[in-house]
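Q: Please design a sequence for this.
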């Protein structure tokens, strides 16, 4: 078989793989909509049992107790949600959704760049709004996400999108919100393939790696304060974190790394967020004192150490919340994109291990919105904010009752059909007829 035929077969395979495109984005809201009778979970800890929520032109106009107001039924489309629950759309931070479609097909992977220092890289321009993986988030109430690059010491900038769009420009709700740094690991494991014991040991290069990072920050600051006669796009990519328009998301999990990262950001006077934060509960007071939030990773995972409590990942959120730290939840891993749809159930696990249910809801809504700097227009069901919300048959943090009936993104009534629901119907019909 010649090379031309091989390329033709590959091209046909890719075309076939993408034939089931994402549902077309919903049309703009045409009429005021009133959701009546539902239990409204506001997202800030408050609950209204018999609620009325009215939104028009994509913005929430009214949030009230149904027994205290009257509705003009001639001017509003009425959705009777008696016995159901309404929630603000869930937000998925630190995700590679839309940057990778098929792990085995290199042409669909655009999550990282070569090189170690890439602050100028913008993940948003690679975001695929028509991703079938992105589409599959919506039936579980995950309606927004922070699209984050990977790789290197400085990965680049993330941006925040909503999951109902034609392209990345339409999807973007906040561009270039943060720069992401992968903090050096103070420890390393022995290389078992060379016969070394597979145990943790001090990373001999740790100090040099931290110094290299600090030098880059110092050089960037000096360049931005100078005359810039010779253009340096790497240093210019750092301007946002120095002028305060961007936050620095530091991906670090161990206690020493967290402490060192906090001192590093204090030295450079930066707004910091800890991502991962496995040992963050050990330094909760330090994080609280410096107003540093944490985006926790790995709720559904095993402990890292034999000395850790068996249920540490399940209760880590409560340990931090009890110390006054602002906490959000991410998926198990940026590489496990499809699991992002399960973040409501990660929050549900936090409830099972001691966290108040409405407090757990904040991990996906108002807390994450605050961490990402978008709480002025989303994250809660409040007047003036985007009508990005959904109605569920039951508790949205419980996989048994998270059954969505209606979903709205910025007031648009979006479809809950996905490639997976199409397949489910297809094969249900097949075996039903046999």
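A: Design:
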């Amino acid at each position: 078989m010649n090379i031309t035929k091989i390329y033709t077969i590959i091209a046909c395979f890719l075309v076939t793989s993408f034939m089931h495109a994402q549902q077309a984005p919903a049309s703009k809201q045409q009429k005021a909509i009133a959701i009546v009778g539902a239990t409204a979970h506001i997202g800030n800890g408050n609950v209204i049992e018999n609620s009325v929520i009215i939104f028009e032109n994509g913005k929430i106009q009214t949030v009230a107790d149904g027994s205290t107001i009257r509705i003009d039924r001639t001017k509003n489309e009425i959705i009777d949600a008696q016995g159901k629950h309404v929630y603000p759309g869930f937000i998925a931070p630190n995700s590679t959704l839309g940057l990778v479609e098929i792990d085995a097909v290199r042409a669909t992977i655009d999550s990282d760049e070569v090189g170690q220092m890439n602050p100028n890289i913008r993940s948003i321009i690679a975001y695929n709004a028509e991703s079938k993986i992105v589409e599959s988030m919506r039936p579980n109430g995950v309606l927004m996400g922070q699209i984050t690059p990977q790789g290197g010491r400085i990965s680049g900038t993330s941006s925040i999108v909503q999951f109902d769009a034609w392209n990345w420009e339409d999807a973007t709700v906040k561009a270039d919100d943060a720069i992401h740094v992968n903090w050096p690991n103070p420890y390393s494991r022995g290389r078992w393939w060379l016969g070394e014991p597979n145990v943790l040991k001090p990373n001999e290069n740790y100090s040099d790696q931290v110094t290299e990072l600090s030098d880059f920050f110092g050089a960037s600051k000096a360049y931005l304060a100078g005359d810039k006669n010779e253009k340096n796009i790497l240093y210019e990519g750092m301007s946002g974190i120095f002028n305060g328009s961007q936050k620095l998301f530091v991906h670090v999990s161990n206690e020493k790394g967290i402490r060192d990262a906090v001192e590093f950001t204090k030295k450079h006077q930066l707004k910091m967020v800890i991502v991962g934060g496995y040992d963050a509960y050990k330094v909760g007071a330090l994080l609280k004192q410096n107003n540093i939030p944490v985006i926790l990773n790995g709720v559904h995972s095993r402990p890292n150490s034999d000395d850790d409590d068996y249920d540490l990942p399940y209760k880590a959120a409560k340990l931090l919340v009890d110390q006054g730290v602002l906490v959000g939840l991410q998926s198990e891993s940026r590489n496990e994109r499809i699991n992002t749809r399960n973040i409501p159930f990660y929050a549900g696990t936090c409830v099972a291990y001691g966290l108040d249910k409405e407090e757990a809801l904040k991990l996906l809504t108002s807390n994450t919105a605050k961490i990402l700097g978008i709480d002025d227009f989303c994250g809660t069901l409040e007047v003036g904010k985007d009508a990005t919300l959904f109605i569920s048959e039951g508790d949205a943090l419980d996989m048994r009752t998270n059954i969505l009936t209606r979903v709205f993104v910025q007031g648009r009534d979006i479809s809950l059909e996905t490639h997976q629901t199409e397949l489910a119907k297809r094969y249900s019909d097949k075996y039903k007829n046999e």
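Q: Thanks. Anything notable?
A: The chain has two domains: 30-89+379-434, 90-378. DSSP finds 13 helices and 20 strands in the chain.
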